[in-house]
Design a protein that fits this description.
This protein is mainly alpha-helical. It has one domain. It is built from 6 helices and 4 strands, in the order ααααββββαα. The strands form 2 sheets. It has a two-stranded antiparallel ribbon with strand order 1-4. Strands 2-3 form a two-stranded antiparallel ribbon. Strand 2 and strand 3 form a beta hairpin. Helix 1 packs across helix 5, helix 2 crosses helix 3 and helix 5 runs antiparallel to helix 6.
């Protein structure tokens, strides 16, 4: 791997980690600050469930309210917009790549034929860090929800290691 590619890759990983923990910290902070007033405008990832009509699909509302991962899946577009907004000046020249568009742990499958992301109905293009961050946040939420909070960083490192290995 050339020195430029290695340095660029290290920068992308560092940026992913910074955003991953910034989003994680902001989520905890927002939860504490907005418990009494959930419509605080600073929380761009908040959607009031009462602001939508779920009459045609009440199961969707149940999935959204069940746990943070369900909500995270629901805010896919908002999450992507917010990540792009935060990075538009930090990484203005990020190349546009083909993206899965909805990368999260429940989209990952392992079969006798191989392993990888499935369900490409939200495929799009954009900066590569979108899929990496989205999958990283999903790993973090999954670890938290399954009482393995100390495993989140390890899981994300392994995910990035596998991603790097696949690029070789």
């Amino acid at each position: 791997m050339s020195k430029f590619r290695k340095t660029r890759w290290q920068m992308i990983i560092a940026v992913c980690w910074i955003t991953f923990f910034a989003i994680q910290s902001a989520a905890g902070k927002d939860d504490a600050q907005t418990a009494d007033k959930p419509d605080v405008p600073e929380n761009r990832l908040y959607i009031d469930p009462q602001s939508r009509d779920f009459a045609a699909n009440p199961e969707l509302l149940d999935r959204i309210l069940k746990d943070p991962h369900g909500y995270f899946r629901f805010i896919n577009v908002l999450f992507s917009e917010e990540v792009c907004r935060r990075f538009s000046t930090k990484l203005p020249n990020s190349p546009s790549l083909n993206l899965h568009g909805d990368a999260h742990i429940e989209q990952y499958a392992i079969t006798d034929l191989g392993r990888g992301l499935t369900d490409f109905d939200d495929a799009s293009s954009g900066p590569g860090y979108l899929d990496l961050l989205r999958f990283g946040v999903s790993l973090n939420l999954t670890c938290q929800l399954n009482n393995y909070p100390d495993s989140a960083k390890i899981a994300f490192n392994e995910f990035l290691r596998g991603y790097r290995d696949a690029l070789k």
